[in-house]
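Listing S7. Sequence submitted for prediction.
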Amino acid sequence: MSRGWPSWWLGWLLLFSGTTAAIELPRPALVPGGVAIVALPASGELPPRAWYRDRRVMVVREGEGWHAVVGIPLSAKPGRHTVTVRGARQSQVFFTVKGKKYREQHLTIKNRRMVNPGAEDLKRIRREKREIEAAFNRWRDAAEVDVTFTLPVEGVLSSPFGLRRFFNQQPRKPHSGLDIAAAKGTPVRAPAAGVVVATGSYFFNGNTVFIDHGQGLITMYCHMDHIEVSEGDVLVKGQTIGAVGKTGRVTGPHLHWSVSLNGARVDPELFLPRQAVE
């Protein structure tokens, strides 16, 4: 501690000193629900710290420099956006978001309560919303984050990210994840290493698991038949976390998979190899 560096900075220094292996970053998509890869004005061994919309963002080393990996929320407006870098001195870098119009999807839900919940249901939904947001808003320092995911379940990509959804002709929030249709009981596996930060049975999401992969990268798995992990479990890539089911608001067995980056739900396909989604 001769220089007075915080302990977490020393950990970063040890991990990044010497030769650092190149990592494969998510595919950039400068649209609402996409990911921005922003080069930062820093080249030292210690990582800079960066924020977007007052939220800490992932910073990774690529080549000789540092890059912010920024999740763009679906609510983002087209135009210039700002990443603030804080270190010895504060600076700003910019990127431009373009508009994108996502397709519509109309679904018929037989259980009308899942479209128009009652008063007691709404109390439960509000409580669960706070729990879900707390899981998505976590931050865990990690020098190395695996951002090259594998599909968490073998199946058919049935509903893409960003769809403007209508349930029983009523408009609802855009689809904030990727649906993968598969038979009930099909194993669901962690797409990358991480820590289980929450599990639960929710009104809309059914049996659900949240995994923290580090630096604000959180993934969520919904509608599962059963869960095979517990809060605090440390997972390796490919480890089984449960099985496909049809719990919560569903029209059939499938996995709803969400990826959250700095609190913004982004397109999971950007984290997959191209051949996995073609």
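Caption to Listing S7: primary sequence and predicted structure tokens for the chain studied. The two ends are 50 Å apart (CA to CA). The helical segments are 7-16, 119-136, 274-277.
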